[in-house]
Q: What sequence folds into this?
């Protein structure tokens, strides 16, 4: 927590504290004081019907071996706070962020590699290095079993974050080969990612504040998003709308290609890589700097 606060800086924390005056819905479930340590991402394992919560437990770039993943039941009860990152897996996670599941394999973005674990047992299945990457963040999976991962292209410099030049969208093919789909200014600082059945990727830009769709042929379409936001997590609802978290405005927005963005849930300090439970139509929100996860029933 202390490391994260130092990296965000005083100005960033002031923005996080400046929640709007609009009163939002109360969470169905509020998980606090249960042992989270900088929770960055939440994923619904729909087969096991459990929520996975990745915890940085320190700096997002430190290879310190103390990151962990918790398992939380939809009721809000903690099944295992250190499901990964303790016991036989101790030291195997540094700063875990986005997650995705293909069959019985859990993929976890961890700075410059994507780690693979067995979805049920938690056994380590290996890792896929992403050459040249510096800040792997979110993960999405495609219908063919491909795994897509964003690299925000950030590094530490002089005690603060700065561009590393590695910002990109990568795809891990089912056989394990890594393919770079897009790189450079066109991807901005990509954070959250969603993948459609036809291979179109949609990304949320942290520094650009843009939600951008990139078709397989490279066509780029900008979706109206909160102006000058600091966008993080991105998920798609059952009706096709996108939900995106915005650190600058401490909120989660609903965005569509043909409409102006609207606030779905306001007053959320440091909303990071949000998750979605399609079975219950729930929004899963990790509040990173306050070590909390909140769960909201969506209309």
A:
């Amino acid at each position: 927590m202390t490391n994260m606060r130092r990296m965000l800086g005083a100005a960033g924390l002031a923005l996080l504290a400046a929640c709007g005056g609009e009163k939002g819905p109360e969470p169905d479930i509020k998980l606090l004081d249960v042992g989270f340590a900088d929770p960055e991402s939440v994923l619904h394992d729909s087969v096991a019907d459990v929520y996975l919560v990745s915890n940085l437990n320190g700096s997002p770039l430190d290879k310190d071996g103390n990151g962990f993943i918790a398992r939380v039941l939809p009721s809000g009860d903690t099944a295992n706070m250190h499901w990964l990152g303790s016991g036989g897996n101790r030291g195997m996670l540094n700063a875990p962020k986005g997650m995705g599941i293909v069959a019985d394999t859990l993929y976890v973005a961890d700075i410059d590699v994507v780690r693979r674990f067995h979805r049920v047992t938690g056994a380590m299945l290996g890792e896929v290095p992403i050459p040249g990457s510096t800040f792997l963040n979110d993960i999405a999976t495609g219908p063919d079993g491909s795994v897509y991962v964003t690299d925000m292209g950030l590094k530490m410099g002089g005690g603060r974050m700065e561009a590393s030049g590695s910002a990109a969208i990568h795809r891990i093919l089912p056989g394990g080969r890594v393919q770079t789909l897009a790189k450079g200014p066109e991807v901005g600082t990509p954070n959250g990612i969603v993948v459609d059945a036809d291979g179109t990727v949609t990304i949320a830009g942290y520094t650009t504040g843009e939600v951008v769709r990139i078709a397989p042929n490279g066509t780029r379409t900008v979706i109206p998003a909160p102006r000058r936001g600091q966008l993080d997590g991105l998920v798609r609802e059952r009706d096709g709308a996108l939900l995106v978290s915005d650190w600058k405005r401490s909120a989660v927005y609903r965005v569509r290609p043909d409409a102006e963005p609207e606030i779905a849930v306001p007053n959320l300090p440091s909303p990071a890589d949000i998750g979605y439970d399609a079975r219950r139509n729930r929004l899963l929100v990790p509040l990173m700097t306050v070590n909390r996860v909140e769960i909201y029933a969506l209309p």
Notes: The first strand starts at residue 29 and ends at 32. Confidence is low (pLDDT under 50) at residues 1-20.
